[in-house]
Design brief:
This protein is mostly helical. It is built from 12 helices and 2 strands, in the order H-H-H-H-H-H-H-E-H-H-H-E-H-H.
């Protein structure tokens, strides 16, 4: 289809737009058209495709290989092709560009540089151990158990009944100085099965203080109950009388006897 050529005669002869005529196809005419193949003379409407921007592929940049990295690999007995592969370059670029750039294209020059590299590694000072951080020092100090010793002032330590009997039993044959010297030499060496067994593990300072200033004996449960029981006689009252009766009743149910309460010489009966 060509471009129409302007014609003055045609333009002046024009009388404006004619009336639009409409026409409705009959069912018979529609039946003849619908379902039939599109004739070859039919012209497909033009379609416009938006231009998609072309993405330019970025050219890969050349890997940045260093001489020291190459010498390190060669010092580890890697071949030239293997070293090039590790560095991310091709063997051809290694031989054509990198080795001449580093001045080690020849095997002899390369061997000299490898030897120098090995010597420089040996000459490097070794890292000295770093001092422990303050937090680590605090943790070490916390884990270290200090040697405890008695207070400066004199006091009487409290020992168990078994420890009291062990000291008294040993003092029948030993003096205090010999006993303390023997315990300091072997704090856990007292014979098992004897009364001295109770002193195994006792602090040397504790034993020294007990021998010098004396000590108090920790009361057993029965001894504690007896002391409270005897103190209840200080104030005479129906409440205390009932409390003592209750103690004796409980001991009888448990089948226990305590001297001074429900055994031996007692002042009250159930």
């Amino acid at each position: 289809m060509g471009t129409p050529v302007p014609n003055r005669k045609n333009e002046t002869a024009s009388r404006g737009q004619s009336d639009v005529k409409t026409y409705t196809l009959s069912p018979e005419e529609l039946a003849e058209i619908v379902g039939k193949p599109i004739p070859k003379s039919h012209i497909k409407p033009l379609s416009f495709r938006a231009k998609t921007p072309t993405i330019k592929e970025e050219k890969p940049t050349m890997a940045k290989a260093t001489k020291n990295d190459y010498l390190k690999l060669r010092a580890e007995a890697l071949s030239r092709p293997d070293a090039a592969k590790k560095l991310g370059i091709t063997p051809s670029s290694l031989n054509a560009y990198w080795l001449p750039k580093w001045g080690i294209r020849s095997v002899e020059a390369e061997e000299v540089e490898i030897a120098r590299y090995k010597e420089s590694i040996k000459a490097e000072p070794k890292d000295e151990p770093k001092p422990a951080a303050p937090a680590q020092v605090a943790e070490i100090v916390a884990d270290t158990q200090p040697v405890t010793q008695p207070e400066d002032g004199l006091y009487k330590p409290v020992l168990t009944k078994a420890e009291d009997e062990g000291i008294k039993w040993l003092l029948t044959e030993w003096d205090k100085q010999s006993l303390l010297h023997e315990h300091a030499a072997a704090p856990n060496g007292w014979q098992i099965g004897t009364q001295a067994e109770a002193l195994n593990g006792m602090s040397v300072w504790l034993l020294a203080q007990a021998l010098i200033t004396g000590y108090e004996v920790e009361l057993t449960t029965e001894e504690t109950l007896l002391a409270i029981y005897q103190d209840s006689y200080i104030i005479k009252s129906e409440h205390n009388n009932g409390w003592r009766a209750g103690v004796r009743w409980v001991l009888s149910i448990l089948g226990k006897e305590i001297e001074g309460i429900n055994a031996g010489s007692v002042s009250e009966e159930v």
